[in-house]
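Backbone-to-sequence.
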């Protein structure tokens, strides 16, 4: 059977969609007829589920999208395309849910976006097109949950693979603009405005932009360019130059800023000397009744500041320990320890001991963030064991629904990613093994063995965990503060997902 005949059937149905002349019943009747007609055709088998997803989203039908997901699960074969189609269909179902219901509660209670994200992250880099699109959509999921800082990290990764990928350029630009609205630094982040302006202009040169996001993206990009130019003139934008860190800086300072490890809001860019220091600070708000109880500060603020100081101490100490593990020769110390040769190619040394200790300290920061949030929003000083996964508990979800703060939602979403079989569970697994048994650093790692990790993977995991802790701190600071007023950059922002996927 000719592929062109199937395409004609697709085209006929899509025309009815465009004319707003297709009901759910008509679609399922069309599907039943074509199932019988094209059942054995390979092209039909490979394209029909993605097409159903497109139709379901276009006619705003949760029933049709659930049909697509059910069919994808029944015929699932591991491939980049199947994971891409599955992920996008879950995202579309999630989008319909938050459009038709209380969006905040849907993001808490529905698992559509989480399932979509997990499927998208299975798409491997061996297919560049699917990889770029899936990672962009994953970053947009993070943005949907208020995880702007992490979304920006993902857009950076995408644009390292393809600097001209238009939809990522657009979404990174709007991510920066969202970030600027919450930017607490005294210096105006004009560099980010300039970079956003450059991104938006460059995105228009990518011929893939419209096919991915639809015709409306062009108007959206032009509107955002004009908004930025109304805030800063074109002449001002051209005059803004990126600053290089000072030549005379220590190796430690260079290590920190190169890897974006300072706890400040500068995203690893250098603006001035304050870009080389940790400046996160929780602006705790007291009620008049609380402040009258103490001539200095209330117990709530005092406890908040103390635990925040402990987090800063743990993070900065972990950062320094890791740096010292690579910058200081430790061989003489190793010679004094009788490390046991276990005949399994594992490596033990003071260097690896420092890295492992640093990893554990970073993990501890996450638990302390849970304590900080619980005390601040419930005024309960807890002596019980409380871990980062408390942010997934029923108790926290009650706080979340009462407060309705996007930054608390971001913390909840991030904590869910650390649970078993989720995206960041490996961090939790490594921390538990380091604390209670052992982790082997090996030359030739067996990927199926949780007790083993390669030297390169350990470094990657450590750097990634730093960013998760930094993200959690960023969300915590904004959650504790009252709702920050937006800047005069009152820009229309949205995260653009894949348009056509079949």
């Amino acid at each position: 059977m000719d592929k062109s005949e199937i395409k004609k059937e697709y085209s006929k149905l899509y025309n009815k969609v465009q004319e707003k002349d297709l009901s759910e019943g008509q679609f399922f009747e069309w599907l039943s007829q074509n199932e019988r007609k094209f059942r054995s055709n390979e092209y039909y088998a490979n394209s029909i589920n993605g097409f159903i997803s497109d139709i379901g989203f276009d006619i705003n039908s949760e029933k049709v999208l659930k049909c697509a997901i059910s069919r994808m699960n029944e015929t699932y074969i591991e491939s980049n395309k199947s994971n891409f189609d599955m992920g996008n269909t879950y995202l579309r179902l999630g989008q319909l849910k938050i459009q038709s219901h209380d969006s905040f509660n849907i993001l808490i209670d529905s698992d559509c976006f989480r399932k979509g994200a997990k499927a998208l992250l299975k798409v491997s880099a061996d297919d560049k097109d699917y990889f770029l699109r899936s990672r962009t959509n994953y970053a947009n999921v993070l943005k949907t949950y208020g995880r702007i800082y992490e979304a920006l990290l993902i857009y950076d990764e995408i644009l390292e693979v393809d600097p001209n990928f238009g939809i990522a350029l657009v979404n990174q630009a709007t991510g920066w603009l969202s970030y600027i609205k919450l930017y607490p630094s005294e210096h105006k982040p004009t560099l980010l405005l300039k970079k956003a302006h450059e991104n938006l202009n460059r995105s228009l040169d990518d011929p893939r932009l419209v096919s991915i996001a639809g015709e409306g993206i062009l108007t959206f990009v032009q509107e955002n360019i004009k908004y930025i130019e109304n805030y800063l003139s074109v002449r001002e934008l051209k005059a803004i130059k990126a600053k290089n860190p000072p030549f005379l800086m220590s190796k430690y300072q260079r290590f920190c800023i190169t890897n974006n490890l300072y706890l400040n809001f500068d995203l690893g860019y250098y603006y001035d000397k304050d870009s080389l220091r940790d400046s996160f600070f929780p602006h705790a708000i007291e009620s008049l009744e609380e402040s009258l109880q103490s001539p200095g500060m209330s117990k709530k603020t005092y406890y908040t500041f103390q635990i925040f100081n402990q987090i800063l101490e743990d993070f900065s100490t972990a950062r320094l320990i890791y740096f010292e593990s690579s910058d200081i020769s430790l061989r003489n110390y190793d010679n004094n320890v009788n490390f046991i040769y276990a005949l399994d190619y594992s490596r033990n040394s003071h260097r690896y001991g420092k890295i492992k200790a640093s990893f554990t300290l970073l993990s501890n920061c996450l638990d302390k963030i849970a304590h900080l949030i619980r005390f601040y929003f419930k005024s309960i000083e807890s002596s019980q064991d409380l871990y980062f996964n408390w942010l997934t508990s029923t108790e926290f979800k009650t706080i979340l629904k009462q407060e309705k703060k996007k930054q608390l939602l971001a913390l909840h979403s991030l904590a869910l990613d650390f649970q078993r079989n989720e995206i960041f569970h490996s961090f939790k697994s490594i921390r538990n093994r380091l604390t209670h048994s052992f982790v082997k650093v090996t030359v030739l790692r067996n990927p199926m063995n949780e007790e083993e990790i390669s030297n390169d993977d350990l470094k990657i995991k450590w750097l990634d965990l730093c960013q998760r802790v930094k993200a959690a701190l960023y969300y915590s600071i904004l959650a504790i503060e009252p709702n920050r007023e937006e800047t005069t950059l009152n820009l229309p922002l949205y995260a653009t997902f894949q348009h056509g996927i079949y």
